[in-house]
Write a structure and sequence with these properties.
37% helix; binds zinc ion
């Protein structure tokens, strides 16, 4: 495993951690302020959300690279399945934005199960069909698509992928080199088959997301823990991810409306650095 005790360059900030992906939350820092604060702390990358980028994708991407940061990713495509699935044109527009931003990875939260189905398999197969149609468009623009399985409590309306195994199955069905997975601690910490499953994920892991699962979580979506404050075995999960060949950035993604989003962004970033060096 990589030693993060002195090196911060493997760390990336997902801007959701500062409350920027939802109206009424966070300190309102601009992308430029975030870039400068991450670069000043020696971080290696930043991950934005589409709503922050608007029509400024190229400029923000160039600004990040000039500051020495990778734009490690963009969150995320419209849903591909379920009652709120986006159109092909909307999904292609999100791919265009990732390409213009220079984000190597565009994350996919799939959307829920399709309205006329029961269980998850039919929706997963429809997901694979849609991805099969979209993958070449993304490949032409050098954008990798990362399927993020979500904790099963999000099954139904947000995802039809609830385990890493689910996501890898869909990758296999699609069979495109630019379709892989994102492993997020919040969504996989409970899965005792994770190490075994990830052992077959070589070359398919496009992202690793850090946070923690609070023992008494109060909100499924907006009460994530900072690393070290919860019950996830962070080092063991990273050992499995790196054992499958992942050597990319570790992206801190903490949705925390009542705690971390209430704090000054500089304090949040300093805490992330400390926790990353000692606990992750
Ligand atoms: Zn995530």
């Amino acid at each position: 495993m990589r030693d993060f005790s002195k090196v911060q360059s493997a760390l990336a900030l997902n801007t959701a951690t500062l409350g920027h992906n939802l109206d009424g939350h966070g300190a309102g820092w601009s992308p430029e302020q975030i870039i400068d604060a991450c670069a000043a702390r020696g971080m290696g990358g930043v991950v934005f959300w589409r709503r922050e980028i608007g029509a400024r994708a190229f400029d923000i991407g160039e600004r990040a690279r000039a500051a020495g940061l990778q734009v490690a990713g963009l969150c995320r495509t419209p849903y591909l399945t379920g009652a709120e699935a986006g159109s092909d044109d909307e999904i292609k527009a999100s791919i265009d934005m990732a390409a213009e931003l220079g984000a190597g990875v565009l994350t996919i939260v799939t959307g829920g199960t399709d309205p006329d189905t029961k269980g998850v398999l039919d929706s997963q197969k429809r997901l694979a069909e849609r991805l099969h149609g979209i993958a070449p468009y993304a490949a032409q623009r050098a954008v990798k698509l990362a399927l993020e399985p979500l904790n099963p409590m999000f099954g139904g309306n947000r995802t039809c992928l609830m385990t890493v195994r689910d996501a890898l199955n869909v990758c296999d069905w699609v069979g495109s080199e630019n379709i892989g997975i994102a492993v997020d601690v919040y969504h996989v910490w409970w899965d005792t088959t994770l190490a075994e499953t990830l052992a077959s994920a070589r070359g398919r892991i496009f992202g690793y997301h850090l946070c923690d699962w609070l023992e008494n979580t109060s909100d499924m979506l907006l009460d994530r823990g900072m690393m070290g404050d919860g019950v996830a075995d962070l080092k063991s999960i990273r050992a499995s991810v790196e054992g499958a060949g992942y050597g990319g950035l570790c992206e801190v993604e903490v949705f925390s409306a009542r705690d971390w989003w209430q704090r000054a962004p500089d304090d949040v970033l300093d805490t992330i650095l400390e926790r990353f060096a000692s606990l992750c």
